[in-house]
TrEMBL record:
<comment type="similarity">
    <text>Belongs to the LysR transcriptional regulatory family.</text>
</comment>
<dbReference type="InterPro" id="IPR058163">
    <property type="entry name" value="LysR-type_TF_proteobact-type"/>
</dbReference>
<dbReference type="InterPro" id="IPR036390">
    <property type="entry name" value="WH_DNA-bd_sf"/>
</dbReference>
<dbReference type="Pfam" id="PF03466">
    <property type="entry name" value="LysR_substrate"/>
</dbReference>
<dbReference type="InterPro" id="IPR000847">
    <property type="entry name" value="LysR_HTH_N"/>
</dbReference>
<protein>
    <submittedName>
        <fullName>LysR family transcriptional regulator</fullName>
    </submittedName>
</protein>
<feature type="domain" description="HTH lysR-type">
    <location>
        <begin position="2"/>
        <end position="59"/>
    </location>
</feature>
<dbReference type="Pfam" id="PF00126">
    <property type="entry name" value="HTH_1"/>
</dbReference>
<keyword id="KW-0804">Transcription</keyword>
<dbReference type="InterPro" id="IPR036388">
    <property type="entry name" value="WH-like_DNA-bd_sf"/>
</dbReference>
<dbReference type="InterPro" id="IPR005119">
    <property type="entry name" value="LysR_subst-bd"/>
</dbReference>
<keyword id="KW-0805">Transcription regulation</keyword>
<keyword id="KW-0238">DNA-binding</keyword>
Length: 298
């Protein structure tokens, strides 16, 4: 009979592309991972992996076994979840990744409420400005902001938010912004993860949509919205930021919203989760809770 733990280790090795990465993900030593892979290959009498100095990859037989093994692990987890859930509520580990800023303001409070309602559920939250891969990172759920790229994962729209061009009063005294042309000539602070951070479609007060593009490259580039916010408050230029992030700075006057009668495209908030035949109850419950807390049932 095949050992489910060995299958889990094999799947982790393929996902990570290395024994070391799988060991880190599973909290095991590299030696334990190696021994279990050797035993699995011996039980199946087939080579599952090819090893090079840089990467481990699945053989043709290993690729087939990988997909079958993932389905087997998902089915086993579903059976255990359903049996346990009937008696003790949600349990097990829920791994969630978000951006640091939105995670701290919105997602973490929701996860805290989820944990309070289900004491046997363990939660691991990973804050990252990068779009970490769900499979190799073994994440159950990711909260993505902006325009969602095509992927093989499932995605559920939770909400929308507005993005607002902002600058400090000190910057505006030296570089006033009274019209769209002034905004195009501003010193911009841009997000490095956006493919076109200085090109947008803008809705004018008359309701027309026009193409907007900054006239010069970004003066400053940063990889997190929090850094962009800090640069803008320090008077370094204009940043285009989420309304939920700049609300306090606008209220206390450290930032000013520019051209408020113009509109930049609204952005989405998405719950992204791996494409599986069975979506775990803990994932469905977490998404429903986020939708409820934001006042939407999207």
């Amino acid at each position: 009979m095949l050992n489910l733990q060995r299958i889990e280790i094999f799947v982790a090795v393929v996902d990570a592309g290395s024994f070391t990465g799988a060991a880190q993900t599973l909290g095991l030593t590299k030696a334990v991972v190696s021994v279990n892979i050797k035993q699995l290959e011996a039980e199946l009498a087939v080579a599952l992996l090819t090893r090079s100095t840089r990467r481990v990859s699945a053989t043709e037989a290993g690729e087939r076994f990988y997909h079958q093994g993932r389905r087997l692990l998902q089915d086993a987890a579903r059976v255990l979840e359903e049996v346990r859930g009937n008696h003790a509520g949600l349990r097990g580990l829920l791994r969630v990744t978000t951006t640091p800023e939105y995670g701290a303001r919105v997602v973490v409070p929701a996860l805290a409420a989820l944990r309070a309602a289900h004491p046997l559920l363990r939660i691991q939250h990973v804050a990252s400005s990068q779009s970490d891969d769900l499979i190799s990172g073994r994440f159950d759920l990711a909260i993505r902001l902006g325009q969602l790229a095509d992927s093989t994962h499932h995605a559920r729209l939770i909400d929308h938010f507005a993005i607002v061009p902002v600058a400090s009063p000190a910057y505006l005294r030296a570089h006033p912004v009274r019209q769209l042309a002034d905004l195009a000539e501003a010193q911009w602070i841009a997000h490095s993860r956006l493919t076109a951070p200085l090109s947008w479609h803008v809705t004018t007060p008359a309701g027309h949509t026009v193409a907007f593009e900054a006239q010069s490259p970004a003066a400053i580039v940063a990889d997190s919205a929090a850094s962009l916010l800090a640069f803008a408050q320090a008077g370094a230029g204009v940043a285009l930021l989420p309304d939920w992030l700049v609300r306090e700075a606008l209220a206390d006057g450290t930032l000013v919203a520019l051209l408020p009668d113009h509109g930049f495209p609204r952005q989405g908030i998405y719950a992204v989760y791996p494409h599986t035949r069975h979506v775990p109850e803990k994932v469905r419950t977490a998404i429903d809770l986020l939708c409820a807390r934001l006042g939407h049932a999207a």
